[in-house]
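Friendly challenge for the regulars: who can give me the structure tokens for this chain first? No prize, just bragging rights.
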Amino acid sequence: MISESALQQFRTSLRGQLFTPGEPGYEEARKIHNALIDRRPAVIARCAGVADVISAVNFGRSQSVVVSVRGAGHNVAGISLCDGGLVIDLSAMKGIHVNSATRRARVEPGVTWGELNHDLGAFGLAATGGFVGTTGVAGLTVGGGLGWMVRKHGLALDNLLSADIVTADGQLVVTDSVEHPELFWGIRGGGGNFGIVTSFEFQVHATGTVLAGLALHPASKGMEALRFWRQYESTAPEEMTNGALVFNAPPELPVPDVLRREPIVGIGGVYAGPLEEGERALRPLRAFGPPAADIYQRMPYSAAQTMADFLWPRGIYNYWKSSYLKSLSDGAIETVLEFCAKAPSRRSVVVLEHNGDGAMSRVPEDATAFGHRNWPYNFLVTAAWTDPSDTDINIRWAREFWTAMQPFLADAVYVNYLGEVEEERVRAAYGRKYDRLASLKAKYDPTNFFCMNQNIRPARSASETAAH
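First reply, four minutes later:
Bragging rights claimed.
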């Protein structure tokens, strides 16, 4: 229990807001993107700046309570919210500073990718990271940072130049490739295990108008369309980052009637390069079938960043399963189409990403803590529904789908797509890097203060190991 006097002292130390159960604003403050997560923290500290973050870390440590850290609150597993403990809420820290001359941007941890690229667009610039605009910069970057320019410019964390981090002992550490390089290695992929990043410095890129959208096919023609896409991806230029989606058309999506009678297979993404070359590169994709609808168009990158947001709205129930694919085989395609045809919810979406064979794959495997760079395809099933009484049937469908996909899946997963954060799956996300990360965790967070995350437990010392 937190004493009233300790709570009041903490409240007066903050420049930001503090919420406790029963107070105005508490119920709204505890909501995150996924409505399936319903937890009741004892305290939510909405930080206004770095001093508030330090104060919150010191308070959590002094009170010996469970602590979680919230950026945009988008993570599907709900790791930004805890029961009965302290939420260090960074969502109000929205600072963005752009240096257009050096093509660098400094970003605070409450910023989303949509917000960042909105501001960068004023300078003809863009940051790689994020397939959905509502995703937070902070959580996505420290776990990896797949996005619409991953093949051209790599992961978000590959473009991270430096970071400011509040560690578990309440100290602010500035880290880059020279200062605290091992910590810098760890935060580029190791998630929130080593501290709270309060500032990210990114290299950003000249990116004006892009070609973005989807070629839409009825699922009854999905096998042919996905086979074609598999072949197309083998020669697609690096300026093209795209994937395939299987989903049902929402009412707001203007599509012909044939695409409302069955699920849709959408193939496409973003071409970030010379537009005339992009038109030529996209011509085979847009001509195959032909598609029932072609919604590719020229748009600012900031618009492309948010074009898929409607498929994953805030405030509905979500449950995800994911792994990298060994290959996009005919058997994998058949299984995807079979399960999508019997999805219990029209809001569920299945994603097949093609991220490899580009800038991400050229970064040396040991350069960062990011777990897996060499699997070209990623499989993600996002079960989504609106009625809480449908929870069991949707979760069961996602689990059965993932089980049926096992022959085609690698024993590896993108850490940001973990819908459940059991140790076995976290180890699968990091592979052989897990032990190095556990040693780093023991150095910077030996008590596992930051445990509400895709958790890496601190490595035991030799004496501790002998005692056990």
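Residues 96-206 form a domain with the Uridine Diphospho-n-acetylenolpyruvylglucosamine Reductase; domain 3 fold (CATH 3.30.465.10). The longest strand covers residues 209-218. Your move, everyone else.
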